[in-house]
């Protein structure tokens, strides 16, 4: 054995060290032994919801198409971040994808408040036409100066009121306390009927209802079912008075930091997941309503056309209060989507 004077290594050992060095450069360059990069997706709903299923599909597609390079960790039910901190966490890159409801971006843009205006959209087809049209697509960029990138809309559905007393007329809601998402438009909507709006995170709603700290809330059939609100609310008024949809967002820093080819693959995976989520949203809207009614825990309040018209008349003046903040052009485009 020949000992090298400088390194103190034998020749076979030197060869092995060299081979290991080359292998390590190769492994790093081609990400062979490196851990996949983790992408975190946090949301506040259960897994058996349109958003929950969409996030899981996104994980499946990304990991299938970028094996060993990226992994997606999905955190449902406010496990990682909740309503109060998910967007701040996104901007700190503590999470890379979130999909808050369109009512929860108020601190970052006022223009998305259009989606909260009561009795604006006739149905989900109109919502979809507006989102996919020019005005809706422009709104995806409404937070770009804040570092938030809108990647697409995801449906949940139209909202219904739930309560412990039947709400046929707006006067029936007078003096009652309703939980709302953090949106001034939603608060104004309840002010208009003489009720009290309490802004609270989604994760607290069940307990607030159960303990009777509040009297009611507004939500989709899917959320009312998956959160078991119907077990602690005896009445659901089928009002379809507003929409609860989402924007899937990431941060500018994360998005631009991705290599262009990976970004393209991830965006395609997201678009496909959103398409699946939208299909599930349409199905769940009917299925979850049926499950709630079949449970007999909650009774359905169906509004006559004349009763519904009273809600429209008392709530619609809210639009004018927010027209300057939202932009008349945006509201007009939303109204036009009804045709
Ligand atoms: C709510 O807070 O009621 C909803 O935004 C929850 C959700 O994400 O669907």
The total of helices stands at 13
Distance between the termini: 88 Å
Q: What's the arrangement of strands in the largest beta sheet?
A: 7-6-8-5-9-11
Q: Look at the structure and give the mean pLDDT.
A: 94
SS-derived structural category: alpha/beta
User: What is the 3D shape?
Assistant: globular
Helix content: 40-55%
Number of E-type strands: 11
Q: Low-confidence segments, ≥5 residues, pLDDT <50?
A: 24-29
Largest sheet: 6 strands, mixed
List bound small molecules. Answer: (2S)-2-hydroxybutanedioic acid
Radius of gyration: 25 Å
What order do the helices and strands follow? HEHEHEHHEEEHEHEHEEHHEHHH
Beta-strand content bin: 15-25%
Write the layout of secondary structure elements.
Blueprint lengths: L10 H19 L7 E6 L7 H16 L4 E6 L10 H6 L5 E2 L25 H9 L1 H6 L8 E11 L1 E4 L13 E4 L3 H8 L4 E4 L5 H6 L5 E4 L1 H6 L8 E4 L4 E9 H6 L2 H36 L3 E4 L2 H11 L2 H9 L1 H9 L3
Parallel strand pairs: 1-2, 1-3, 6-7, 6-8, 9-11
Antiparallel strand pairs: 4-10, 5-8, 5-9
This protein binds (2S)-2-hydroxybutanedioic acid (LMR).
Give a brief outline of the structure:
The protein is α/β, with parallel strands linked by helices and 339 residues long.
Describe the structure.
Helix 2 (50-65) links the parallel strand 1 and strand 2. The radius of gyration is 25 Å and the shape is globular. Helix content is 43%, strand content 17%. It has a six-stranded mixed beta sheet with strand order 7-6-8-5-9-11. The protein has a three-stranded parallel beta sheet with strand order 2-1-3. With 339 residues, the protein is α/β, with parallel strands linked by helices. The structure holds (2S)-2-hydroxybutanedioic acid (LMR). (2S)-2-hydroxybutanedioic acid binds next to loops. Residues 1-34 form the signal peptide. Keywords: Signal, Transport. This is TRAP transporter substrate-binding protein.
């Amino acid at each position: 054995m020949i000992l090298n004077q400088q390194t103190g290594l034998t020749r076979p050992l030197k060869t092995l060290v060299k081979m290991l060095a080359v292998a390590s450069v190769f492994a790093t360059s081609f990400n062979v032994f490196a851990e996949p990069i983790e992408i975190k997706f946090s949301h506040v709903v259960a897994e058996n919801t349109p958003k929950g299923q969409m996030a899981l599909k996104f994980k499946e597609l990304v990991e299938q198409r970028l094996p060993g390079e990226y992994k997606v960790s999905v955190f449902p039910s406010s496990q990682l971040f909740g309503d109060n901190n998910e967007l701040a966490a996104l901007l700190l890159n503590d999470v890379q994808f979130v999909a808050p409801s369109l009512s929860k971006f108020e601190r970052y843009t006022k223009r998305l408040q259009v989606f909260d205006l009561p009795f604006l959209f006739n149905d989900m087809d109109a919502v979809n036409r507006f989102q996919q049209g020019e005005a809706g697509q422009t709104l995806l960029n409404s937070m770009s100066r804040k570092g938030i990138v809108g990647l697409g809309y995801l449906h949940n559905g139209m909202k219904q009121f739930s309560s412990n007393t039947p709400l046929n007329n707006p006067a029936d809601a007078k003096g009652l306390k309703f939980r709302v998402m953090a949106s001034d438009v939603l608060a104004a909507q309840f002010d208009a009927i003489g009720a009290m709006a309490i802004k609270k995170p989604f994760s607290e709603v069940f307990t607030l209802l159960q303990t009777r700290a509040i009297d009611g809330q507004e939500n989709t059939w899917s959320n009312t079912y998956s959160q078991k609100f119907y077990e602690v609310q005896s009445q659901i008024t089928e009002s379809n008075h507003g929409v609860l949809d989402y924007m899937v967002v990431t941060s500018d820093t994360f998005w631009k930091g991705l290599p262009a080819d990976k970004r393209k693959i991830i965006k395609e995976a997201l678009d496909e997941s959103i398409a699946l989520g939208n299909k599930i949203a349409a199905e769940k809207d009917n299925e979850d309503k049926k499950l709630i009614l079949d449970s007999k825990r909650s009774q359905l309040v169906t509004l006559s056309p004349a009763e519904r018209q009273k809600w429209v008349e008392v709530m619609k003046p809210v639009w004018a209060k927010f027209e300057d903040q939202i932009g008349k052009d945006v509201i007009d485009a939303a109204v036009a989507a009804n045709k």
